[in-house]
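haha ok so turns out i had the wrong file open the whole time. this is the CORRECT one, sorry everyone. sequence first:
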Amino acid sequence: MRDIERICKVALVQAEPVMFDKKASLEKVLAYIDKASGKADLIVFPELFIPGYPIGMNFGFSMGKRTEAGREDWMRYYNASVVAGGDEFKQLADAAIRTGAYISIGFSERDAVTGTLYNSNAVFEPDGTYKIHRKLKPTGSERVVWGDANKDYFPVTETPWGPIGSLICWESYMPLARVALYQKGITIYISPNTNDNPEWQATIQHIAIEGKCYFINSDMIVTRSSYPEGLNERSAVDRQPDIVCRGGSCIIDPRGHYVTEPVWDEETIIYAELDMTLPAACKMEHDAVGHYARPDVLELIVKDE
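then structure:
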């Protein structure tokens, strides 16, 4: 590993998106960035924060069938999704330049050429440049809304604290995808997600130990009242509990210990200072892609064009 700066200050934003509204969601993002300005080197937002994760909806899909009402809801979500490089990206890039921070943000990406949506995460650098990761395989019925990634598989961002990478939600249950990031030497593993189930906490502790990296668990708050009026699929929304997603955002160190404990049921910014000597120090005994690997027996081939 190259020499890196010792302390990385993180602001982990656990908040509620403005569902189906990219303008209002972006305004909320920019407000949180300004609030964390000067306090953080890295500011992290959850999965699909622009324009929100429509938990419980199916957009009129059933086996072999679709509905016109579902198409209307889908188009509403499509129109609220973001084209990379568009005005929303320019505002986020300006925010990164203004604050001098790295910014990680989950968003529904609308392809600039085709009609496909992707579940994506962008990391903006302090000079306004950015890299995008598209979710390799949407989970369950997410597949009727977002397509499989066709590029931007495993980008990493070089920072003063080492390379930073991300896998979105249940991508972290893809062992080979994790190894693809480990092979790039990541010191910080960002996970934008909507996993408020208790077993997820065991997962993220395991990954931090396995990869000897900091794991930033970035979850959101979603309430039933956050869904907009006028949706055709209102009955699916009305079946949800008052708090649809409880959060649980936290940061795990390379030993699997909580740097910050999970936070539930509230919007907040979680601040932490990460000792970036730990990822290397913890590899003394176990380096999954270094001295604890057996490349003569096991080989991972990554098609990362």
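The chain has one domain: 7-284.
again sry for the mixup
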